[in-house]
Specification:
Length: 367
Amino acid sequence: MRSHSMLKPLIIKGKKIRVPIVQGGMGVGVSLHPLAKAVAQEGGLGIISSACVDRIVSKRTGKKMNVYESVYEEVSLSAVKGGFTGINIMAALGRDYNASVKGALDAGADAIISGAGLPLNLPAIQPPKDTALIPIVSSARALDIICKKWEKLGYRPDAVVLEGPLAGGHLGFRIDQVDLDSNKLENLLPPVKDMAKKFGDIPVIVAGGIYTHDDIVRFMDMGADGVQMGTRFLATDESSATEAYKQAVVRATEEDIVVAHRPGSPCGLPFRVIKQSPMYVSSLQKKRTPKCDKGYVLMKDAEGQYTVCPAKEDNENYFCICNGLLSSAGYNPDKEEALYTVGTNASRVDKIVSVKTLMDELTGAQE
Ligand SMILES: Cc1cc2nc3c(=O)[nH]c(=O)nc-3n(C[C@H](O)[C@H](O)[C@H](O)COP(=O)(O)O)c2cc1C
Ligand code: SF4
Protein backbone atom coordinates (compact mmCIF):
# COMPACT_ATOMS: atom_id res chain seq x y z
CA MET A 1 0.00 0.00 0.00
CA ARG A 2 1.17 3.48 -0.81
CA SER A 3 1.81 5.78 2.07
CA HIS A 4 0.27 9.23 2.24
CA SER A 5 3.18 10.50 4.23
CA MET A 6 4.89 13.52 2.76
CA LEU A 7 8.30 12.90 1.29
CA LYS A 8 11.08 14.54 3.26
CA PRO A 9 12.27 17.85 1.77
CA LEU A 10 15.65 18.06 0.05
CA ILE A 11 17.99 20.62 1.56
CA ILE A 12 20.78 21.89 -0.66
CA LYS A 13 23.08 24.77 0.28
CA GLY A 14 20.59 25.88 2.92
CA LYS A 15 17.65 25.92 0.48
CA LYS A 16 14.70 23.77 1.40
CA ILE A 17 13.21 22.12 -1.68
CA ARG A 18 9.80 21.01 -0.44
CA VAL A 19 9.43 18.08 -2.83
CA PRO A 20 12.69 16.07 -3.10
CA ILE A 21 12.30 15.56 -6.84
CA VAL A 22 14.82 17.02 -9.27
CA GLN A 23 13.56 17.16 -12.85
CA GLY A 24 16.70 16.10 -14.70
CA GLY A 25 18.20 18.39 -17.32
CA MET A 26 17.31 17.14 -20.78
CA GLY A 27 19.25 18.38 -23.74
CA VAL A 28 18.85 19.22 -26.48
CA GLY A 29 15.97 21.59 -25.94
CA VAL A 30 13.68 19.18 -24.04
CA SER A 31 13.94 20.82 -20.63
CA LEU A 32 13.67 24.54 -21.22
CA HIS A 33 12.06 27.20 -19.04
CA PRO A 34 8.42 26.03 -19.47
CA LEU A 35 9.20 22.63 -17.94
CA ALA A 36 11.59 23.84 -15.24
CA LYS A 37 9.20 26.61 -14.20
CA ALA A 38 6.28 24.17 -13.89
CA VAL A 39 8.30 21.74 -11.77
CA ALA A 40 9.48 24.57 -9.50
CA GLN A 41 5.88 25.71 -9.02
CA GLU A 42 5.00 22.21 -7.81
CA GLY A 43 7.78 22.35 -5.20
CA GLY A 44 10.51 20.36 -6.99
CA LEU A 45 13.80 21.51 -8.50
CA GLY A 46 13.31 22.37 -12.19
CA ILE A 47 16.37 22.10 -14.42
CA ILE A 48 16.91 23.52 -17.90
CA SER A 49 19.60 22.19 -20.22
CA SER A 50 22.38 24.36 -21.60
CA ALA A 51 22.95 22.17 -24.66
CA CYS A 52 22.65 24.18 -27.90
CA VAL A 53 20.56 26.74 -26.04
CA ASP A 54 22.04 29.65 -28.01
CA ARG A 55 20.51 28.39 -31.26
CA ILE A 56 17.20 27.48 -29.63
CA VAL A 57 16.72 30.79 -27.82
CA SER A 58 17.95 32.83 -30.80
CA LYS A 59 15.38 31.12 -33.02
CA ARG A 60 12.59 31.61 -30.48
CA THR A 61 13.31 35.28 -29.85
CA GLY A 62 14.32 36.13 -33.42
CA LYS A 63 17.39 37.83 -31.98
CA LYS A 64 20.93 36.49 -32.28
CA MET A 65 22.05 35.57 -28.76
CA ASN A 66 25.36 34.06 -27.69
CA VAL A 67 25.77 31.22 -25.19
CA TYR A 68 26.10 33.48 -22.15
CA GLU A 69 23.07 35.61 -23.08
CA SER A 70 20.81 32.69 -23.92
CA VAL A 71 21.69 30.79 -20.74
CA TYR A 72 21.09 33.96 -18.71
CA GLU A 73 17.71 34.45 -20.43
CA GLU A 74 16.54 30.85 -19.98
CA VAL A 75 17.61 30.62 -16.30
CA SER A 76 15.86 33.93 -15.57
CA LEU A 77 12.63 32.87 -17.30
CA SER A 78 12.55 29.57 -15.43
CA ALA A 79 12.49 31.41 -12.10
CA VAL A 80 9.74 33.96 -12.76
CA LYS A 81 7.03 32.02 -10.92
CA GLY A 82 9.21 31.26 -7.90
CA GLY A 83 10.42 27.95 -6.53
CA PHE A 84 13.85 26.50 -7.21
CA THR A 85 15.39 26.17 -10.65
CA GLY A 86 18.79 25.46 -12.12
CA ILE A 87 20.66 24.28 -15.16
CA ASN A 88 22.36 21.13 -16.43
CA ILE A 89 25.68 21.83 -18.15
CA MET A 90 27.43 18.82 -19.68
CA ALA A 91 31.19 18.60 -19.20
CA ALA A 92 31.40 16.99 -22.65
CA LEU A 93 30.37 20.31 -24.22
CA GLY A 94 33.78 21.86 -23.64
CA ARG A 95 33.64 24.74 -26.08
CA ASP A 96 30.66 26.47 -24.41
CA TYR A 97 31.20 25.23 -20.85
CA ASN A 98 32.63 28.34 -19.17
CA ALA A 99 30.23 30.76 -20.87
CA SER A 100 27.29 28.56 -19.79
CA VAL A 101 28.50 28.46 -16.18
CA LYS A 102 29.01 32.23 -16.06
CA GLY A 103 25.58 32.93 -17.58
CA ALA A 104 23.91 30.64 -15.05
CA LEU A 105 25.79 32.09 -12.07
CA ASP A 106 25.13 35.68 -13.10
CA ALA A 107 21.42 34.90 -13.56
CA GLY A 108 21.37 33.51 -10.01
CA ALA A 109 20.51 29.87 -10.80
CA ASP A 110 19.77 27.86 -7.65
CA ALA A 111 21.87 24.97 -8.94
CA ILE A 112 24.31 23.93 -11.64
CA ILE A 113 24.25 20.18 -12.24
CA SER A 114 27.13 18.91 -14.35
CA GLY A 115 27.98 15.46 -15.71
CA ALA A 116 28.70 13.62 -18.98
CA GLY A 117 32.35 13.74 -17.98
CA LEU A 118 33.87 14.90 -14.71
CA PRO A 119 33.29 18.61 -13.94
CA LEU A 120 36.71 18.91 -12.29
CA ASN A 121 37.13 22.65 -12.72
CA LEU A 122 33.57 23.85 -12.08
CA PRO A 123 34.18 25.72 -8.79
CA ALA A 124 37.15 27.61 -10.27
CA ILE A 125 35.29 29.31 -13.12
CA GLN A 126 33.66 32.03 -11.04
CA PRO A 127 32.64 32.30 -7.34
CA PRO A 128 29.28 30.49 -7.16
CA LYS A 129 27.78 32.63 -4.36
CA ASP A 130 24.31 31.13 -3.62
CA THR A 131 24.33 28.68 -6.53
CA ALA A 132 24.72 25.03 -5.55
CA LEU A 133 27.34 23.11 -7.55
CA ILE A 134 26.29 19.50 -8.10
CA PRO A 135 28.34 16.92 -10.02
CA ILE A 136 26.79 13.82 -11.58
CA VAL A 137 28.66 10.56 -10.97
CA SER A 138 28.11 6.88 -11.64
CA SER A 139 30.50 5.51 -9.02
CA ALA A 140 31.98 6.24 -5.59
CA ARG A 141 35.38 6.50 -7.28
CA ALA A 142 34.27 9.37 -9.49
CA LEU A 143 32.87 11.20 -6.46
CA ASP A 144 36.17 10.68 -4.63
CA ILE A 145 38.15 12.14 -7.57
CA ILE A 146 35.86 15.17 -7.83
CA CYS A 147 35.82 15.88 -4.08
CA LYS A 148 39.63 15.68 -3.89
CA LYS A 149 40.06 18.04 -6.84
CA TRP A 150 37.41 20.46 -5.55
CA GLU A 151 39.01 20.42 -2.09
CA LYS A 152 42.14 21.91 -3.68
CA LEU A 153 39.91 24.63 -5.13
CA GLY A 154 38.42 25.26 -1.70
CA TYR A 155 34.98 23.88 -2.51
CA ARG A 156 32.84 20.89 -1.58
CA PRO A 157 29.93 19.65 -3.74
CA ASP A 158 26.61 20.96 -2.41
CA ALA A 159 24.99 17.66 -3.42
CA VAL A 160 25.77 14.84 -5.83
CA VAL A 161 23.59 13.10 -8.41
CA LEU A 162 24.27 9.37 -8.62
CA GLU A 163 23.05 8.20 -12.02
CA GLY A 164 22.66 4.47 -12.67
CA PRO A 165 22.59 2.62 -16.00
CA LEU A 166 18.81 2.78 -16.65
CA ALA A 167 18.85 6.53 -17.31
CA GLY A 168 18.17 8.40 -20.53
CA GLY A 169 20.86 10.32 -22.38
CA HIS A 170 24.55 9.48 -21.98
CA LEU A 171 25.50 6.75 -19.51
CA GLY A 172 28.56 6.94 -17.28
CA PHE A 173 29.48 3.28 -17.84
CA ARG A 174 31.46 1.34 -20.42
CA ILE A 175 29.13 -0.45 -22.81
CA ASP A 176 30.02 -3.87 -21.35
CA GLN A 177 29.27 -2.62 -17.82
CA VAL A 178 25.79 -1.24 -18.40
CA ASP A 179 24.03 -4.50 -17.47
CA LEU A 180 26.25 -5.60 -14.56
CA ASP A 181 24.44 -6.43 -11.35
CA SER A 182 27.01 -4.47 -9.37
CA ASN A 183 26.05 -1.36 -11.35
CA LYS A 184 22.38 -1.45 -10.41
CA LEU A 185 21.40 1.81 -8.77
CA GLU A 186 20.51 0.10 -5.48
CA ASN A 187 23.99 -1.45 -5.40
CA LEU A 188 25.79 1.78 -6.30
CA LEU A 189 24.02 3.81 -3.64
CA PRO A 190 25.63 2.42 -0.42
CA PRO A 191 29.28 3.06 -1.43
CA VAL A 192 28.40 6.49 -2.86
CA LYS A 193 26.49 7.36 0.31
CA ASP A 194 29.57 6.35 2.36
CA MET A 195 31.85 8.47 0.19
CA ALA A 196 29.44 11.43 0.47
CA LYS A 197 29.54 11.05 4.27
CA LYS A 198 33.31 10.91 4.27
CA PHE A 199 33.48 14.33 2.61
CA GLY A 200 30.94 15.90 4.97
CA ASP A 201 27.44 14.57 4.51
CA ILE A 202 26.88 15.65 0.95
CA PRO A 203 23.22 15.03 -0.03
CA VAL A 204 22.88 12.18 -2.54
CA ILE A 205 20.26 12.38 -5.30
CA VAL A 206 19.66 9.13 -7.18
CA ALA A 207 18.69 8.90 -10.84
CA GLY A 208 17.96 6.35 -13.54
CA GLY A 209 14.89 4.15 -13.76
CA ILE A 210 12.85 5.79 -11.00
CA TYR A 211 9.21 5.78 -12.08
CA THR A 212 6.65 5.67 -9.26
CA HIS A 213 6.01 7.22 -5.86
CA ASP A 214 6.92 3.86 -4.34
CA ASP A 215 10.29 3.91 -6.16
CA ILE A 216 10.99 7.29 -4.58
CA VAL A 217 10.03 6.07 -1.10
CA ARG A 218 12.16 2.93 -1.56
CA PHE A 219 15.31 4.87 -2.51
CA MET A 220 14.80 7.43 0.23
CA ASP A 221 14.42 4.60 2.72
CA MET A 222 17.77 3.30 1.44
CA GLY A 223 19.40 6.62 2.33
CA ALA A 224 18.93 8.80 -0.76
CA ASP A 225 18.16 12.44 0.01
CA GLY A 226 16.25 12.98 -3.23
CA VAL A 227 15.68 11.63 -6.72
CA GLN A 228 16.30 12.96 -10.21
CA MET A 229 13.91 11.88 -12.96
CA GLY A 230 14.09 12.49 -16.69
CA THR A 231 11.91 10.23 -18.83
CA ARG A 232 8.68 10.94 -16.96
CA PHE A 233 9.16 14.67 -17.40
CA LEU A 234 10.00 14.20 -21.08
CA ALA A 235 6.45 12.87 -21.42
CA THR A 236 4.70 16.00 -20.12
CA ASP A 237 2.80 18.79 -21.85
CA GLU A 238 5.39 21.29 -20.64
CA SER A 239 8.46 19.55 -22.07
CA SER A 240 9.71 21.11 -25.30
CA ALA A 241 10.24 17.82 -27.17
CA THR A 242 8.37 17.76 -30.49
CA GLU A 243 4.98 16.05 -30.66
CA ALA A 244 6.56 13.33 -32.84
CA TYR A 245 9.15 12.68 -30.09
CA LYS A 246 6.49 12.48 -27.37
CA GLN A 247 4.41 10.09 -29.46
CA ALA A 248 7.49 7.93 -30.11
CA VAL A 249 7.90 7.69 -26.32
CA VAL A 250 4.25 6.69 -25.88
CA ARG A 251 4.60 4.00 -28.58
CA ALA A 252 7.99 2.61 -27.49
CA THR A 253 8.05 -0.95 -26.18
CA GLU A 254 10.85 -2.55 -24.17
CA GLU A 255 12.47 -4.00 -27.31
CA ASP A 256 12.46 -0.58 -28.99
CA ILE A 257 14.82 0.93 -26.42
CA VAL A 258 18.50 0.22 -27.03
CA VAL A 259 21.87 1.49 -25.87
CA ALA A 260 23.53 2.95 -28.94
CA HIS A 261 27.22 2.19 -29.41
CA ARG A 262 28.81 1.97 -32.84
CA PRO A 263 27.00 3.70 -34.25
CA GLY A 264 26.91 5.82 -31.12
CA SER A 265 27.43 9.25 -29.65
CA PRO A 266 30.61 11.12 -30.60
CA CYS A 267 30.93 11.99 -26.89
CA GLY A 268 32.21 8.43 -26.51
CA LEU A 269 29.67 7.36 -23.90
CA PRO A 270 26.89 4.80 -24.38
CA PHE A 271 23.67 6.61 -25.28
CA ARG A 272 20.14 5.21 -24.88
CA VAL A 273 17.76 5.75 -27.82
CA ILE A 274 14.52 4.57 -29.36
CA LYS A 275 15.78 2.31 -32.14
CA GLN A 276 13.28 3.66 -34.67
CA SER A 277 14.71 7.20 -34.33
CA PRO A 278 15.20 8.35 -37.94
CA MET A 279 18.83 9.41 -37.46
CA TYR A 280 19.71 6.13 -35.73
CA VAL A 281 18.12 4.12 -38.53
CA SER A 282 20.02 6.15 -41.13
CA SER A 283 23.32 5.79 -39.35
CA LEU A 284 22.85 2.00 -39.13
CA GLN A 285 22.42 2.12 -42.89
CA LYS A 286 25.36 4.54 -43.15
CA LYS A 287 23.22 6.98 -45.05
CA ARG A 288 24.18 10.36 -43.66
CA THR A 289 27.06 12.20 -45.30
CA PRO A 290 29.24 13.50 -42.47
CA LYS A 291 28.90 17.25 -42.06
CA CYS A 292 29.83 19.35 -39.03
CA ASP A 293 27.84 22.58 -38.97
CA LYS A 294 26.94 22.92 -35.27
CA GLY A 295 30.10 21.98 -33.39
CA TYR A 296 28.80 21.67 -29.81
CA VAL A 297 30.70 18.48 -28.99
CA LEU A 298 34.00 19.52 -30.54
CA MET A 299 37.11 18.69 -28.55
CA LYS A 300 40.49 20.40 -28.62
CA ASP A 301 43.13 19.46 -31.18
CA ALA A 302 46.90 19.49 -30.55
CA GLU A 303 46.95 23.28 -30.96
CA GLY A 304 44.19 23.77 -28.39
CA GLN A 305 41.53 24.64 -30.98
CA TYR A 306 38.07 23.08 -30.85
CA THR A 307 38.11 21.16 -34.13
CA VAL A 308 37.82 17.46 -33.23
CA CYS A 309 34.60 15.41 -33.34
CA PRO A 310 34.52 11.75 -34.34
CA ALA A 311 31.18 12.24 -36.15
CA LYS A 312 32.80 14.79 -38.45
CA GLU A 313 34.46 12.15 -40.64
CA ASP A 314 33.10 8.83 -39.51
CA ASN A 315 29.39 8.17 -39.95
CA GLU A 316 29.78 4.43 -39.62
CA ASN A 317 30.60 4.50 -35.94
CA TYR A 318 29.06 7.82 -34.86
CA PHE A 319 25.91 9.78 -35.46
CA CYS A 320 25.82 13.58 -35.53
CA ILE A 321 24.27 14.14 -32.14
CA CYS A 322 24.04 17.95 -32.41
CA ASN A 323 21.82 17.79 -35.46
CA GLY A 324 19.84 14.71 -34.40
CA LEU A 325 18.93 16.16 -31.02
CA LEU A 326 18.27 19.68 -32.32
CA SER A 327 15.85 18.15 -34.82
CA SER A 328 14.00 16.28 -32.05
CA ALA A 329 13.53 19.62 -30.28
CA GLY A 330 11.96 21.10 -33.40
CA TYR A 331 14.99 22.95 -34.71
CA ASN A 332 15.17 22.51 -38.50
CA PRO A 333 13.33 19.16 -38.41
CA ASP A 334 12.88 19.32 -42.18
CA LYS A 335 16.67 19.51 -42.72
CA GLU A 336 17.94 16.87 -40.28
CA GLU A 337 16.55 13.58 -39.00
CA ALA A 338 15.58 13.29 -35.34
CA LEU A 339 17.30 11.22 -32.67
CA TYR A 340 15.17 10.27 -29.65
CA THR A 341 16.95 9.57 -26.36
CA VAL A 342 14.98 8.02 -23.48
CA GLY A 343 15.47 6.04 -20.27
CA THR A 344 14.49 2.35 -20.10
CA ASN A 345 11.20 3.33 -18.48
CA ALA A 346 9.95 5.00 -21.65
CA SER A 347 8.30 1.67 -22.40
CA ARG A 348 5.96 2.24 -19.43
CA VAL A 349 4.80 5.68 -20.55
CA ASP A 350 1.37 5.43 -22.19
CA LYS A 351 0.22 9.04 -22.20
CA ILE A 352 1.41 12.62 -22.00
CA VAL A 353 0.30 14.39 -18.82
CA SER A 354 0.73 17.81 -17.22
CA VAL A 355 3.55 18.42 -14.75
CA LYS A 356 0.93 19.03 -12.04
CA THR A 357 -0.70 15.63 -12.64
CA LEU A 358 2.68 13.92 -12.65
CA MET A 359 3.93 15.67 -9.50
CA ASP A 360 0.68 14.84 -7.66
CA GLU A 361 1.17 11.19 -8.58
CA LEU A 362 4.84 11.16 -7.60
CA THR A 363 4.38 12.86 -4.24
CA GLY A 364 1.44 10.65 -3.36
CA ALA A 365 -0.88 13.69 -3.15
CA GLN A 366 -3.15 12.21 -5.78
CA GLU A 367 -4.73 9.69 -3.45
C1 LIG B 1 15.55 13.18 -23.28
C2 LIG B 1 16.63 13.13 -22.25
C3 LIG B 1 17.70 14.01 -22.35
C4 LIG B 1 18.69 14.04 -21.38
N1 LIG B 1 19.67 14.95 -21.47
C5 LIG B 1 20.60 15.06 -20.48
C6 LIG B 1 21.57 16.09 -20.50
O1 LIG B 1 21.60 16.92 -21.41
N2 LIG B 1 22.48 16.13 -19.51
C7 LIG B 1 22.45 15.23 -18.47
O2 LIG B 1 23.30 15.32 -17.59
N3 LIG B 1 21.53 14.27 -18.40
C8 LIG B 1 20.59 14.17 -19.38
N4 LIG B 1 19.61 13.20 -19.29
C9 LIG B 1 19.51 12.37 -18.06
C10 LIG B 1 18.43 12.93 -17.13
O3 LIG B 1 18.76 14.19 -16.63
C11 LIG B 1 18.17 11.99 -15.92
O4 LIG B 1 19.26 11.94 -15.05
C12 LIG B 1 17.86 10.58 -16.33
O5 LIG B 1 17.04 10.56 -17.46
C13 LIG B 1 17.21 9.82 -15.19
O6 LIG B 1 16.72 8.60 -15.60
P1 LIG B 1 15.17 8.36 -15.99
O7 LIG B 1 15.01 8.89 -17.36
O8 LIG B 1 15.02 6.89 -15.92
O9 LIG B 1 14.32 9.10 -15.00
C14 LIG B 1 18.63 13.13 -20.29
C15 LIG B 1 17.58 12.22 -20.22
C16 LIG B 1 16.58 12.21 -21.18
C17 LIG B 1 15.44 11.23 -21.06
S1 SF4 C 1 30.04 16.49 -36.33
FE1 SF4 C 1 27.92 16.75 -35.67
S2 SF4 C 1 27.96 15.97 -33.55
FE2 SF4 C 1 30.08 16.46 -34.09
S3 SF4 C 1 30.39 18.57 -33.37
FE3 SF4 C 1 29.84 18.62 -35.55
S4 SF4 C 1 27.64 19.00 -35.57
FE4 SF4 C 1 28.18 18.22 -33.52
